[in-house]
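dumping this here before i forget
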Amino acid sequence: MVQKLGKIFGIIGLLSGLAGIITIWFIYIYFPALPLILAIVAIVFGAIGIVKDDSKGLGVGGLILGIITLILWIIFPLLFLVLLIGLNI
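structure:
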């Protein structure tokens, strides 16, 4: 039963990390906190999936996607700011 819960946590982490990356590119302007929330969920559930499951693949995927989403969430506004400064708006 514990292994099955590890897989479920890994799947939740993977899907929330994937949803976080998708929301970074499409709805970041309308809901800027949503990718951050999804990244935190992906990191937490990915880590739990790694600890609880033997195969660890889904948990690692969720953890990596969560970290990538978090990095993009930090970098995206900075790139937007540089673009605005470069265009003299």
